[in-house]
Amino acid sequence: MSAYHCNRKSDPMALKATIFKADLQIADMDRNYYHDHALTLARHPSETDERMMVRLLAFALHADEGLSFGKGLSADDEPDLWQKDLTGAIELWVDVGLPDEKLIRKACGRAKQVVVYSYGGRGAELWWNQNSSKLQRLDNLTVINLPAAASLELAKLARRNMRLQCSIQDGQIWVAGDNDTMQVDLMKVKAPVASAR
Q1: Is 29 helix (H, G, I), strand (E, B) or coil?
Q2: Which CATH class is domain 16-190?
Q3: Which of 64, 105, 108, 141 is the most buried (most CB within 10 A)?
């Protein structure tokens, strides 16, 4: 019997996620991390290529054997990416986009470290201006903005089957697809207060 028939309670009108495969080669000289990852990304029906590729970039920047994709857009209580220790405690919580300030505060209470990758140009600026006074107080939160030009260029690399290389050295990030190579410049909007820990 096909696996597709097992979920009898699902709404027949509900749209299914689109599956993308990514062979990601990471050479992170800043963290001395060199590894190839065969990733499967489920793109939610409401998710754009741009958002999915920012998720993939976030994976490359935090890559670890213990890092995995959460339910993201499908569930408020899970991030886009997370890493847990052997006891199940959340070491790292990564959200992409412009999450609700209350959800970020809740995440900061659950995880040792929370990172938000905002993107979208003017929308991301407005989001930060509206939420910065409350978010600045969260010691374990980092907010990084991805310029609109960079996230749109990343979106162009999206394919159902992707082969990507990500190189990181001295804070410089390069992402290469089959035919394109691009530099990604990130702007740290908020750093964690207790960064020395």
Answers
A1: coil
A2: alpha beta
A3: 141
